[in-house]
Amino acid sequence: MVPRLPKRRVLLAVIAALTSLAAVVGAVAQLRLRAPRPASELAGAGQPAIRGPLRPSARNPRYFETPAGEPVVLVGSHTWDNLQDVALPGRPARPFDYDRYLAFLERNHHNFFRLWRQEEARWMVEPPGDCAIAPHPWRRTGPDTALDGGPRFDLAAFDESYFARLRDRVRRAGDRGIYVAVMLFNGWSIEKHKGTFSAANPWRGHPFNRGNNVNGVDGDANGDDSGEETHTLAVPAVTAVQEAYVRKVVDTVNDLDNVLYEISNESPPASVAWQVHMIRFVKNYEAGKPKRHPVGMTSAWPNGDNAALLASPADWISPNAGPGDREVDDPPAARGDKVIVADTDHLCGVCGDAEWVWRSLLRGQNPAFMDPYEGATGIDPHIDPSARRWVALRANLGYALAYAQRLPLARMAPRGDLSSTGFCLASPAPDGAYLALVPEGRDVSIDVTATPRPLAVEWLELRSGTVARRSARGGARVDLRAPFAGPAVVYLAPEPPER
């Protein structure tokens, strides 16, 4: 028998239950409210239109600039399947929803991505099982059969559908104000063993494998069933085909303003001389064309030498992390030798967080994220592309771009010495500006001695995109406390004059 409770106690119990339920509902609502707000809202406007090809800035060579001399920060995310269709084990080839991808980038207020190319038609060194990739630059005409069971490639006959897709995707990105790094080659497509990765041998599916083309081209000069030689100058027949392909790519996109070139993704360390040759080849060929575009060199893998990037004729570079992930946790300040695109792909893979975005930006770099977007290639099925960490990282890339577009960027430089947190991008002048990271979201001291005017202080909470505004006196070191508990950035600039 259930004991009967007095009516008053029953009423109190009901009230307590309802209160608890309201608290739960309120907590859920708060979580929803704390989801990162769209960066486009923070920016207050859409993406600026592309205004001519980029070039390294004459006034601040940490960044690119438009033909009119306006500095541009590149910020964005990229994913493996955004050019070619990839069939994975247990998953047929699926056309990449490119319109959805562009809308995703635009929604997050990104203005840059890498357009990926896999050189092989079948098999990948990293994901286990059988993989198929298409289309490719050359037609598969046969009559002989390649190692993957399809017709062999004719390296003298371009597949126009590949170049039509390439052009279309770059053009459509430009229509949305997004710059595209066109990847010409890929070091993960040529080697039997890539570091510790050896799930399958991509060289077996490569067009330069003598078993896969009708032209007698053999990129495996030493006969070890691996094609590292194709990313050197050791095989003149291969270099000649590569140069013809590069000319075709340049012919395809030269008239588009939103183009950058990337020679190769993570080629082996022995590729440096070949990459330098290709950088010069692109530049020399474009010299006879209507437009010139920046050419980039990204980190060799494994154990690439970042000094080789700085010594190269490239306009932009993407270094690796170096010992102890130094370039992830404490990036070196960009000096302006080259435009640095700090890409997690070369730093630590699918990694990083919201704070990493700002550590990179405030050291004068251009942050980019290797995005597991919609589980694109399935390289790691344990990565959840919709995890809160990645959602916040993408949002903060957009926030970073929004603030960069408000800065007097031509005069900004990394000035960690001006902030107690060590992360500050600043223009210490009477009309200067200061942008600093506050990792713990509490206190920061910033030296604004060079800017004596009253300052507007704007705080941004990284987790939600919430903005709070304050004011402060200029002309001395100011001590500030964040109005948020979590990590934040603070932006200081002179108050606008009263009308």
Q: What's the short version?
A:
The chain has 499 residues and is of the alpha/beta class. It has helices at residues 7-33, 39-43, 98-107, 160-175, 236-253, 272-286, 306-311, 326-329, 344-347, 354-361, 388-404, and strands at 55-56, 64-65, 71-72, 76-78, 85-87, 112-115, 132-134, 138-145, 151-158, 179-186, 259-265, 295-298, 316-318, 339-343, 366-370, 413-414, 424-427, 433-438, 443-447, 455-461, 467-472, 477-481, 488-494.
Spell out the blueprint of helices and strands.
Elements: H1 7-33, H2 39-43, E1 55-56, E2 64-65, E3 71-72, E4 76-78, E5 85-87, H3 98-107, E6 112-115, E7 132-134, E8 138-145, E9 151-158, H4 160-175, E10 179-186, H5 236-253, E11 259-265, H6 272-286, E12 295-298, H7 306-311, E13 316-318, H8 326-329, E14 339-343, H9 344-347, H10 354-361, E15 366-370, H11 388-404, E16 413-414, E17 424-427, E18 433-438, E19 443-447, E20 455-461, E21 467-472, E22 477-481, E23 488-494
Parallel strand pairs: 4-15, 6-10, 10-11, 11-12, 12-13, 13-14, 14-15
Antiparallel strand pairs: 1-2, 2-3, 5-7, 8-9, 16-17, 17-18, 18-23, 19-22, 20-21, 20-23
Report on this model:
This protein has 499 residues and is of the alpha/beta class. Strands 4-15-14-13-12-11-10-6 form an eight-stranded parallel β-sheet. Strands 16-17-18-23-20-21 form a six-stranded antiparallel β-sheet, covered by helices on one side. A three-stranded antiparallel β-sheet has the order 1-2-3, with no helix packed on it. The chain is elongated. The N terminus is likely disordered.
